[in-house]
Amino acid sequence: MKSVAMRAASVFTHPAPPHDFLALFNPLSSARQLRGVVTAVRPETAQSTTIAFRPGNGWSPHDAGQWARIGVEIDGVRQWRSYSLSAPAGSDPEITVTACGKVSAHLAHQTRVGDIFFLAPPQGDFVLPTGPRPLLMLTAGSGITPVMSMIRTLVPKRPDADVVLIHSARDRESTLFEGELAELSEQYDGLHVIHRFTSEDGRIDFSDAADLDALCPDWRSRKTYVCGPSEMLDAAEALWTGANLPDTLTVERFATATYAEVDGATGGTVTFEKSDREVEADGTTPLLEVGEEAGVLMPSGCRMGICRTCLTPLLSGQVRDLRTGEINATEGDLIQTCISAAAGNCHLDV
Amino acid sequence: MTLTTEETTTTDVRVALPPTVKRTGVLPTSGAPLERPTAAAHLSDEQVHQLGAELDAIRDEVLAARGADDAAYIRNMIRLARTLDVGGRIALAFSKTRLGWAIGTGSLALGKVLENMEIGHNVLHGQWDWMRDPDIHSTTWEWDFVAPARGWQHTHNDIHHTWTNVLGKDRDVGYNILRVSDEQPWKPRDVFNPVVNFFLAPTFEWGIASYDLEWDMVKAGVKSKEEFNSDLNALKQKAIRQVLKDYIATPAAGLLAGNSFKRGLAGTVAANMIRNVWSHAVIFCGHFPDGVDVFTEEMIDGETRGDWYIRQMLGSANLSGPKVFHILTGNLSHQIEHHCFPDLPSNRYIEVAPRLREVCERYGLPYVTGPLHTQLFQTWRKICQLALPDENKAETLKETFLPKWMRRKTAVATA
Ligand SMILES: Cc1cc2nc3c(=O)[nH]c(=O)nc-3n(C[C@H](O)[C@H](O)[C@H](O)COP(=O)(O)OP(=O)(O)OC[C@H]3O[C@@H](n4cnc5c(N)ncnc54)[C@H](O)[C@@H]3O)c2cc1C
Ligand code: FES
């Protein structure tokens, strides 16, 4: 019925989809972009905020531990970042954002009820095991968010749950979900929470098993989830590999790879994904020419930055705008290949 | 010398061909073209370089200032155009009075004008791509105009904006059907110039649709039959939907309210004609009024960034008027600014204009501008004048059009 009505409406709205006209009344309506509206904003600590939102059509319910790409507009420009969903599976999604940079600070401090989020459906393999098993959760800082979703999902529902959470934060004030965790561990025997305040007790040392043996003696027999800063994740991986238990460890990384600073002349390896070509390029030749030289069918028009026929998605890596010298490392951004050169390695979707 | 031999010996500047040499990337900032246009001949290489740097700086400044207000501007404009479109169609279908019809038609026409010019043209230029909003992006936008957006982007953004007013390159110099510059050699068909233009205005969207198919390029062997057929198919599909929407579905909706089909049809035909006549007028005033230069291919060989800007300034003409007028023209009233900075958001041209004008004054370059009626009059006058050959008007016309036997007779009579 709805699709018949939409089809009929599209006769009148062509070439725009009817959604574009419905958007005059319903801000969640869009044929191209999943959206959500913010329904609640709860400060957690001075730097962290939980934001609940109601997604529009096209969202799929999340599993505990999954994350979603969230887009917000800052100074008129859409910015995308990934955030773990901290709400339990089965309820409306929530994210808990810790301000540490441009986008996170905007989300944590500027978000208001009624704001519109742009969304991509939840994804990720950092999810609960399929059968009951004793679990160990190792988290630090905002790394607790996906684990919080798991605990909220599992502990109240499963009398047989056996979860040990060891969470590190600088001090009590910056610890996320402290009150709720205390209540849950009070109420349910299946949850045991250990807080580590690093400003007092220092960081957990993963270089050998001593610290961990002291905190959770049976850690080897538990399925372990770890989420926190890169150094912690690397050290944990090394420890588990050393103990010959790599399969019992599941890791979630928040940090995206960062790129080295480059000067004006540095190029890099350019990978043309669809055409399956890889070539070395210097930092001054437009990627359009690099691609054409390599026999890639590059879209092009004016070849001087006016017409945008050459727009090609940047899958990863970074490029430099030859006119302004500006570096662009935004994944998924459409770049003008005729006036962009490699600034380090980069992958193009052509 | 007869016209036919002249045509075969010189390359025909009225057939625009794509570039043989590819220029990629940023134009050089130093050097000089083989020949500078007369209006800029007094400038030294150094001055031209300086001018280029000044304009680049203006561009960078606006790029850095773009923000939430600009985003709100285009969103509000889109909301306004859509509201006028829906409102107009509803009024046409359901009102019973003459006034209701006029309001419906006017609202629809205004919605179409905004959608076509301030929104469509500028979004398709990528002026709003920086927002990274897939709903307002040059790669996803399709407009309420018969010509499919992708084909138009090719002929307009790519060909016209790169080769602005270069004879033999910029097909927009007369759109293959008009003679708009005395540098274009006269052809017999040019006597129909005024008639062609008169009929082009109300049917402009169909004219552009046909023009974007690039029949001439197929004939010249530059565009393949396959490409042509695929463009033609895209056009057919779009045209069917446009006709269905405006000339069948909207009038038919009026039947529900007991109105006649004819009433609705008259409204949508009128709205499209108003939009067509308006955009035709504005667009023709962008490059065809008096004082606008055309260029030759030799003149752009070795063109620097500064020379490129100069060509855009000499090859375009502005329209003066109040702010709403600029919005109604899609800010194409700021044609000079638009040609220098085709991807700056259109709402910013109004603040760039006085600065560009000041630059022109300082460097002794013309900056052509005037109110719509003056510019439109000049455009029409030029199109009428150029209908006739430049010299020996009567002789040439006789030779071309009179049947052979009458020609001999007149020749005998004059002997
Ligand atoms: C799977 C996953 C889950 C996450 N969950 C959480 C969470 O629950 N809570 C939380 O606070 N943070 C989470 N993050 C981190 C979050 O995505 C941001 O990286 C963080 O908020 C910092 O972003 P920022 O813009 O504020 O910092 P900035 O300092 O402005 O950005 C850091 C730098 O990295 C680049 N960058 C960072 N992220 C991206 C991206 N996604 N795409 C392109 N470029 C990027 C930016 O361009 C910038 O150069 C998660 C990250 C991932 C990958
Ligand atoms: S080819 Fe025209 S902008 Fe790149």
Task: Briefly characterize the structure.
The complex is a heterodimer of chains A (350) and B (415). Chain A is α/β, with parallel strands linked by helices and 350 residues long. Chain A folds into 4 domains: 1-31, no CATH class; 33-119, Elongation Factor Tu (Ef-tu), domain 3 (Beta Barrel), CATH 2.40.30.10; 135-252, 3-Layer(aba) Sandwich (Rossmann fold); 268-348, Beta-grasp domain (Ubiquitin-like (UB roll)), CATH 3.10.20.30.
Overall morphology of chain A: globular
The total count of helices of chain B amounts to 18
Helix content of chain B: 55-70%
How many strands in all of chain A? 17
CATH superfamily of the largest domain in chain A: Nucleotide-binding domain of ferredoxin-NADP reductase (FNR) module
Name the helix and strand elements of chain A from N-terminus to C-terminus, one letter apiece.
HHEEEEEHEEHEHEHHEHEEEHEEEE
Shape of chain B: globular
Rg of chain A over CA atoms, rounded to whole Å, is 24 Å
The number of distinct helices of chain A, counting runs of at least 4 residues, comes to: 9
Please write out the topology:
The complex is a heterodimer of chains A (350) and B (415).
Chain A: H1 2-13, H2 18-22, E1 35-43, E2 48-55, E3 67-74, E4 77-84, E5 94-98, H3 102-110, E6 116-119, E7 135-140, H4 144-154, E8 163-169, H5 178-187, E9 191-197, H6 198-201, H7 210-215, E10 223-227, H8 230-242, E11 249-252, E12 268-272, E13 277-281, H9 287-293, E14 311-321, E15 327-328, E16 334-336, E17 340-348
Parallel strand pairs in A: 7-8, 7-10, 8-9, 10-11, 12-17
Antiparallel strand pairs in A: 1-2, 1-6, 2-5, 3-4, 3-6, 12-13, 14-15, 14-16, 14-17
Chain B: H1 3-9, H2 45-65, H3 68-94, H4 98-124, H5 149-162, H6 193-200, H7 204-212, H8 215-219, H9 225-256, H10 261-287, H11 297-300, H12 305-314, E1 318-320, H13 323-328, H14 335-340, H15 349-362, E2 369-371, H16 372-385, H17 393-401, H18 404-414
Parallel strand pairs in B: 1-2
Helix pairs in contact in B: 2-12, 2-15, 3-4, 3-9, 4-10, 9-10, 10-16
The complex binds flavin-adenine dinucleotide and FE2/S2 (inorganic) cluster.
Flavin-adenine dinucleotide binds next to strand 4, strand 5 and helix 3 of chain A.
